[in-house]
Amino acid sequence: MPLLDQLASLLGPSGLLTGSDMTGFESDWRGLYHGRAAAVLRPADTAQVAQAVRLCAAAGASIVPQGGNTSMVGGAAPDESGAQFVLSLSRMNRVRELDRADMSITLEAGMTLKAGQEAAEAAGLMLPLSINAEGSATIGGVLATNAGGNLTVRYGNARDLVLGLEVVLADGSVFEGLRRLRKDNTGYCLRQLFVGSEGTLGIITAAVLKLAPRPRQREVALCALPTAEAALALFGRFQQHDPGAVQAFEYMSGTGMALVNALIPGATLPLAEPAAHYVLVELATPREGGDLRAGLESVLEAAIEAEEVLDAVLAESEAQRLGLWMLREEHSEAQKRAGASVKNDVSVPVSRIPAFLEEATRVCEAMVPGIRVAPFGHIGDGNIHFNLVQPEGADPAGFLARDHALMDAVGAVVQRLDGSFSAEHGVGRLKPYMMPLWRGGAELEAMRAIKAALDPQHLLNPLVMLPRP
């Protein structure tokens, strides 16, 4: 029986899509990759995932695991051959267990991050991971890319929340590691191999994640600053005052903020004058009666007196808090509306962020006169999305033709500052060519050895992460 017929028999009518039904699964969110899949597989449970993988492995057919398809680097897009199967876990979207005493939740991989957050909140707890795409991004994809997001400064990246995983391996066997143990020093920590592996080593089908107490109080302020050095100094002030209260510390450039205010309906800068740099700081505590407002005001007053902060506005209601966060969260959408953009998801040591911003901006402006340098990101953990928007009126295709040259120029600055070219978005199909320079030698060979051991036929997401030998 042909492979497609076997898969159709296994998955049923709602579990296999072909033809026009595959629209939306074959291209990435940014529109960089437009592939053609053999079919889209939508298994209903782990057993069906395992059997589908076994059938594909026996036929030598490649599989591209796909979550919410929100990858910024083409990590979930099939190639143009028409031979690869997209495997979507969208039907596997249940909460398997929530343990209040253990402060953990077991979620299937197809559940959106937002739905996972809501399940935790309904139990009076918090799933402390937040990214802009949380309404679409799924748990499996979030873990496969080791997403970071806005709360990393306090709670860490996705891998820091993982207690256990269930993973279907390349031969269809199942790694049953859904343990809730906080301490388990028994052999290699295999679950961490799959976190951040971008679907190249196995297909995550479920996860046990740590929860946190839900904040009883939040305070948010938007600050205008004269320099990037001032943003770093302000972060130091909040860290010295009460590091446990800092839940988010987000940086935005004046260029990026101007695009948001110009192109996003309802966006309004609630400050008297525009500035060259901005910071959004959120403090939070689960304590009753935690007086965060007094601490926030005290730190900001000292920073204003030291001329590190030019102006600041504090949210007086939940609606205002959400309004301030919208100014940060709509940066990607505003840049998309402004034209073609080249995205650099980089990290450097926190102390070197001002030097990076200054040097990388100078390099890019010299390469492309009129380029709009619009960085933003998580300054508290050193991760900056150094995004470059085409000059006004420029040809988008012509600008994108220089994407790798611009990425490499930014990367050279990052490398001199001991940083990374991929902080939280992954490598995907866009950046494997950078791996030999950044992770060559023993490190890259170790990765290839792990890939060969777990996926000897090279069938799981074969174009992602590792450059072909």
Condensed summary:
This protein is an alpha+beta fold.
Strand order of the largest sheet: 15-12-14-13-19-20-17
CATH architecture of the largest domain: 2-Layer Sandwich
Topology-level CATH name of the largest domain: Uridine Diphospho-n-acetylenolpyruvylglucosamine Reductase, domain 3
Question: What is the CA-CA span between the terminal residues?
Answer: 34 Å
Which spans of ≥5 residues are poorly predicted at pLDDT below 50? none
Q: What does the largest sheet look like?
A: 7 strands, antiparallel
Structural class: alpha+beta
State the helix count: 16
Strand-residue fraction?
A: 15-25%
- The percent range for helix content is 25-40%
> What's the CATH C level of the largest domain?
Alpha Beta
Please tell me what the overall shape is: globular
Mean pLDDT: 95
The total number of structural domains is 5
Number of strands: 21
Radius of gyration: 23 Å
Features:
5-stranded antiparallel β-sheet; single chain; 7-stranded antiparallel β-sheet; FAD-bd_oxidored_4_C; 469 residues; Alpha-Beta Plaits; 21 strands; alpha+beta; Uridine Diphospho-n-acetylenolpyruvylglucosamine Reductase, domain 2
